Amino acid sequence: MPRGEVSFLILILTGRCNLKCAYCYNGQPNWNDMSESLLRKSFSFLRLGPARVQLTGGEPTLAPNLIELASELASTRSNLHLSIQTNAVLLDRALVSLFKARRISVGVSLDGAPEVNEISRGGTAEVLKGLKLLEDYKVPFEVTTVVGSFNALRLYETALMLADFSMARGLGLDLLVDKGRRKLAKASKEDLTLGAEKLVKTLSLLNLRRASPIGLRELEMLRESRQGPRGRNFCPACRGASLAILPNGWFYPCGQSAGDEALELKEEGEGNEVFKGLRPEGEHCQGCPLEGRCPGECPSRLWCNRESEPLVCSLYKALAPYT
Fold it and tell me: pTM higher than 0.85, yes or no?
């Protein structure tokens, strides 16, 4: 991957994790922690203009020293946005204070109400304690929910859980991917449609009473797509502008594709072209009410799932009336 061309850099700080998610895409990797020298080198791949760096894992909070180093490196550039994706189980005052001081955006993985989240991820009580810490320190956060058959009809419960957190700013839905040690089934089109409709209605009611609304990422994408089709611009990976780096120094187009041998990139000189032009269009698009203004689909999901009609189509159609 040529240096200086990346607008979105994903740093997988460690392969270690303190949870055993039933759909873990990484399986059971033998990755240790990223070295400080590799972390420093990784920043050289970023372009000089505005860029983003996301810290993830494994569970990145198992390597707090690397979070601190990344925040120091990011602080040297005013046009660099640093974020972290965590399960929130290990959040403590020191980490949350760092997030606040360095303005690190926080994403938390949570799949629903306690009994639902215990099926897919576990550690729910500790997650809620972590959210309470973010609330106490007034650190805004967004939640990512993986969607499968186990929670599609109960997505609204995630919104209800966030109702009492004034720092909650957003909710994003990640549909299950056929990768790793996935033990849970994907949602049906019918359940996803009903679940998405109830979720957006619940959020609308909750936001009437909130000073800061909780946004729904996919709904916002649909609204943006009114300006024209996003297609290739679903994410930086569609433009060949993202790069994920494993602790062992291997490179991939994005975080979700990390570990897939077929998608590994060379360290130097190989452009990140694998997802360029990968689009979800097909016969199912003909006559679709969103034809020409569809937000598109995650290229890694398209690559892994190989569906004749992407499940995300049902999600977009369910949300479209609320745009």
Answer: yes
